[in-house]
Amino acid sequence: MSTLETMNFEQILPVIFMILMGISMLAYVILDGYDLGVGALMGYATPDEKDSMIASIGPFWDANETWLVLGVGILLVAFPMAHGVILGELYLPVTLMLFSLIIRGVAFDFRAKVPTDRKHVWNKLFLIGSVGAALSQGYMLGSYITGFHTSPLGIVFSLLTALCLLAGYVLMGSSWLLMKTTGPLQVKAVNWARRSLWLAGVGIAAISAVTPFISPRIFEKWFAFNNFFLLMPIPLATLGLFFIADRTLRRLPTRLAAGNEYGAWVPFACAVGVFFLSFYGLAYSLFPYLVLDKIDVWQAASHHDSLMVIFWGVIVVLPAILGYTVYAYRVFWGKAQGLSYN
Description:
Layout: H1 9-40, H2 47-57, H3 61-64, H4 66-78, H5 80-89, H6 91-110, H7 119-145, H8 152-180, H9 183-210, H10 216-223, H11 225-231, H12 233-257, H13 266-286, E1 289-291, E2 295-296, H14 297-300, H15 304-331
Antiparallel strand pairs: 1-2
Helix pairs in contact: 1-4, 1-7, 1-8, 1-13, 1-15, 4-5, 4-15, 6-7, 7-8, 8-9, 8-13, 9-12, 12-13
C-alpha cells in the first residue's frame, strides 16, 4: 500500500474525510459526553441541585449533538460501503441510542412544563435517556473494535467498553459541574469525580490491554521494536493525566471550603486529554481500515468527483458549526445561573 507521502490528492482525499469524520466523532464524545454524564448523575442530586445541573448544560446540550450528525453524515456520503456495514451490524444499539436521545430531549423540555409534583418523572426519564445513550455508544464502540464479533468474549468486551464509556462520561460530567456550579453541589461533584476517575481508568487500561490481541496487524503496529518506544508516551501521558486529576481532586475540598477554586478546571481538562489520547491510540490501531481488517478507507470511499462536491460542502459547514460552538461557549462562560423558564 502506498504511503501518504507518495499519494496524489485523489488518493489522499478519502484520508482527509476519515480525519474529518474522526474529529467530528471526537468532538461529539467530548462535548455531548459531559452533558450525558451530568444526566447520569441526576439520581444523586436534590430537586434544586437538579435544576442547577440542567442550567449548567442548558445552553449547550442540543448543539453538542450536531457533531454526531456531522460525523455520521460524513460516514454516509463519503464512505457508503462502510456506512452500510457498520450501521447494519450495530442496528440494535444504534436504535437504543436514538430512542434514548429522543427520551432525553423530550424529558429536558417537559420537566419545565409539568407541575412540580410530576417533575421527578421527567427527571428520571432524563437520567434513563442519558445512561441508555452512554451505554449504547460504549457497546457500539466495543463491538466496532472487535470487528463485530458476536462470540461470548466479544459481547463481554463490548459490555466492558459500555461501562467504561459511561464511567468516562460521568467523570467529565462531574468535572463540568465542578467548574460550573457552587456550594454543596460543587462539593458533591468532587466526590462524584473521584469515584468515577479510577473506574474509568481501570476500564481504559483493560480495553488497551485487550485491543492489540484482537488483530495480529494491530499487535504488530504497537509492539514492533521501532514503534514500541515511539508509542510509549501515549499510555504514560494518559497515566500522568489520571494522577494529576486524582491529586487535584484530593486537594479541592480543602480549597473550596476556604472559598478558593484554584484548579477547579484541571479535572475536566485531564478528562478531555484522556479521551483525546484514547481516541488517538484507537485511530492509530485501526488506520487505514474503517471495518477492522476488511474494508479500508479507499475501498469504502465514494467516487472522487462525489468526494470533491462533498469536500466543498464540508468546507462551508464545518467552520460554521465550529464557530457557533465557540461563540456559544464564550457567551455562556462562567458559573451557571439560576434556572428560570419565564
